[in-house]
């Protein structure tokens, strides 16, 4: 029995603007029901890749298939199956939040009840009668997501959906995204929040300079880095000189308040600290997706 076709198949896609290679030979598949994140510095090519997959731009080379169909040129039969939330959205002047979502719903023949359900889902039920111009930036972001979901698409594209949200609203939106996935929907999104991608995504693709540098489950990417573990204690508990001499310690440094020990064999180090009764206030930091990201893309500032 042949495996099911992917919801999204991107193969050898390129998009150039003069000498700028915005997307430079990108290939990846997304299975139905999968939650995939695309991560990268500013200018990495994330948004252009999404716009090509959504059918908003034509690639210079390569192919894209959404449920087996090319999204370019625009295919009216395909549009009801995809939902799109862009980085920046424009709404109709003078309409309330409910009227905005209802208008989008009407384009797909969806009734008022579904619009109200989406406002509830994104936490805007209490703002349903508020004009869009009275909403905060984070509330407008959530309104944009409600509009993208109102017709119950099978594949959802979200471009930095949690940008401009405060920490509480961001965590609430995580629950929204989990709920969407639990309904069997496929999600492809971009984000700058690596902790978010590590928690939510089945797989992540790390992009830079228009190319995918790595793509796998977050935990596998972290394990593949083979990064050191950092153990931090208060200087009142352990001196820098003693820290350097402990079994398993590859190095140690202090900021005057704490001592941080670097190790690739944490078991003997932690055992030695326990023998010295030096575990009060101890913290252990293992590698994260952020370490993988910085390892692959570098640490220089990107405007």
Automatic annotation (TrEMBL):
Subcellular location: Cell membrane
Signal peptide region: none
UniProt superkingdom: Bacteria
Membrane topology reported for the UniProt record: Peripheral membrane protein
Record flagged with keyword Nucleus: no
InterPro entries: AAA+_ATPase, ABC_transporter-like_ATP-bd, ABC_transporter-like_CS, ABC_transporter_ATP-binding, P-loop_NTPase
PROSITE patterns named among the record's database cross-references: ABC_TRANSPORTER_1, ABC_TRANSPORTER_2
Keywords tagged on the record: Antibiotic resistance, ATP-binding, Cell membrane, Membrane, Nucleotide-binding, Translocase, Transport
Domain ABC transporter: start-end pairs: 8-234
GO biological process: response to antibiotic
Designated name of the protein: ABC transporter
Species this chain originates from: Saccharomonospora piscinae
Lineage: Bacteria, Bacillati, Actinomycetota, Actinomycetes, Pseudonocardiales
């Amino acid at each position: 029995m042949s495996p099911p076709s992917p919801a999204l198949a991107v193969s050898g896609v390129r998009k150039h603007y003069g000498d700028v290679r915005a997307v430079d030979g990108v290939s990846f598949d997304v299975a139905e029901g999968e939650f995939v994140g695309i991560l990268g510095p500013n200018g990495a090519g994330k948004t252009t890749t999404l716009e090509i997959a959504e059918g908003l731009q034509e690639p210079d080379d390569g192919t894209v298939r959404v449920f087996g169909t090319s999204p370019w040129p625009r295919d009216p039969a395909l549009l009801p199956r995809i939902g799109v939330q862009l980085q920046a959205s424009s709404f109709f002047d003078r309409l309330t939040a409910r009227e905005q979502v209802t208008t989008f719903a009407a384009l797909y023949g969806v009734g008022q009840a579904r619009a109200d359900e989406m406002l509830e889902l994104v936490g805007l039920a209490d703002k349903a009668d508020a004009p869009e111009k009275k909403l905060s930036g984070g509330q407008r972001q959530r309104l944009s997501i409600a509009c993208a979901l109102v017709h119950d698409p099978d594949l959802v594209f979200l471009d930095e959906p949690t940008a401009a949200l405060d920490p509480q609203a961001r965590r609430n939106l995580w629950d929204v995204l989990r709920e969407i996935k639990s309904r069997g929907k496929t999600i492809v999104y971009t984000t700058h929040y690596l902790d978010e991608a590590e928690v939510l995504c089945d797989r992540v693709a790390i992009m830079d300079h228009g190319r995918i540098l790595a793509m796998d489950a977050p935990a596998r990417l972290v394990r593949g880095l083979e990064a050191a573990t950092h153990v931090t204690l208060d200087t009142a508990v352990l001196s820098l000189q003693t820290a350097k001499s402990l079994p398993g310690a590859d190095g140690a440094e202090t900021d005057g308040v704490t001592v941080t020990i670097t190790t690739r064999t944490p078991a003997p180090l932690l055992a030695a600290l326990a023998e010295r009764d030096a575990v009060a206030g101890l913290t252990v930091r293992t590698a994260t997706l952020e370490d993988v990201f910085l390892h692959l893309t570098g640490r220089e500032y990107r405007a």
